[in-house]
Amino acid sequence: MTQGHGAWGTGRGQAGCPSPPVSRPSPLLLVCLVLAGCSTVPLALPLPARRALQAVATALHPTPSGLAHQYQDYVGVLHVHTDVSHDADGTFDDVVRTANAHAIDFVTITDHNTLHHLREGRQGWHGATLILVGSEISARGGHYLTLGITEEIDRERLTTQQVIDETARQGGLGFIAHPYFAKRRWADWSVTGFNGIEIYNVAHDTMDEHKLRLAVWALTSPQDLFFWSVLNRPYDPLRTWDELIARHGPLTGIGATDAHEFHALGITFAPYDVMFKFARTHLLVPDETLTAEGIYTALRQGHAYVAVELLDQAKGFTFTVEDHGRVVGVMGDMVPWSPDLRLRVHLPATALLTLVRDGQAVQTTIGDAWDLPLPAPGVYRVEAARHNKPWIFSNPIYVQTAPDDAPSPDAPPEPAATP
Q: Considering the domain 64-316+388-396 in this protein, what is its CATH number?
């Protein structure tokens, strides 16, 4: 994937945070990093140690209490394949075991063109993880990720638009999958009625690399480091997401593992253990008990953010609009503009933050919190980067012209913007 420059930068560090370490640092150094708000957790550390350090970091950088009382932050892994798909070897039980080991709250299994695990009655709670079953449909215009459907969709008979319509008829929701994946790009941009788009897909980011480099890396290095090496900001999907929002209105951006664990030569490639850390979608849900309906509602509303958590966990991130200290909007919400509104960002660790308005980067800062006035109506979202790599992508907050400020019917129309 093509690297970019501009506001995001390609060679700039964030507040002294080091690049991914290649050797195990001392416990004293780890504690110092956490206390400094620079909670880089070495990939070589065991999972329990990484969790303990992240817990300390979260305690030192707590979520703002006003938002914490309104929503629970549930972490999920979307777009997972099992051996029911033709191109994967991992099993349903492998998914459950890995999700429980990494404290994942929910997983969506979306095998190709089938609801096999749903028919087998396997949707539901497995240990501490809620497993939901959808399907990745190979439609004529591209791959369409469906959730919440109960009947398999005849992709051979239906057009791409009809696949989207049938998903909605069943009460499900759907997302354009890996729109720029070289092997299967999305081709039909005339469609309507979809709920969102994958703004980050691990398969897209990795398989577009040089094939020889992929093979050498995969066979000679720890897979955590291999995937970290190919991690780039998803420029094309993000740009398209912004353009689609301008054209269609609110659309939810999700992160997809597109996990296809497979086995060859006695080696497990793209293991769930790595993929489940690589792309996670966090949902803000008001209920203390997680349900399928709560997950689907949050996805419809855009109450979500995407995080790459190979090094740093993102739980505790918030992006809100406040009016005199009162939260009046979270990610996915529509908020009427007033001159007293402020944007507030909170992070569990220091990062390079970029504010994006109507698809354009307009301001940057470095820190673990950001408080700035909201200058005008627009579609606002935030990106956070650490170690010169993407970390968090928020869904937008849609700040609209208040009804009292709307132009009168006799006023000349504003010139139409080109999407």
A: 3.20.20.140
CB 275 within 8 A of CB 261: yes
pLDDT digits (tens, 9 = 90+) for 277-305: 989 999 999 988 999 999 999 999 999 99
Domain boundaries, given as residue ranges, for the chain: 24-60, 64-316+388-396
3-state helix, strand, coil in the chain (%, to 5): 25, 30, 45
Mention every residue, 6+ apart, whose C-beta is less than 8 A from residue 419: 243, 246, 247
Report the C-alpha gap between 308 and 280 in whole angstroms. 6
Using an 8 Å Cβ cutoff, are 384 and 364 in contact?
no
**Spans of the chain, pLDDT less than 70:** 1-69, 204-224, 402-419
* The two three-digit tokens of residue 31, written as one number: 């504690």
User: What are the φ/ψ torsions at residue 65 (nearest 5 degrees)?
Assistant: -60, -35
Per residue in 33-84, pLDDT (tens digit) is 333 333 333 444 444 554 454 455 444 445 554 565 689 999 999 999 999 9
Contacts with 164 (C-beta within 8 Å, 6 or more apart), sequence order = 144, 174, 191, 192, 193, 194
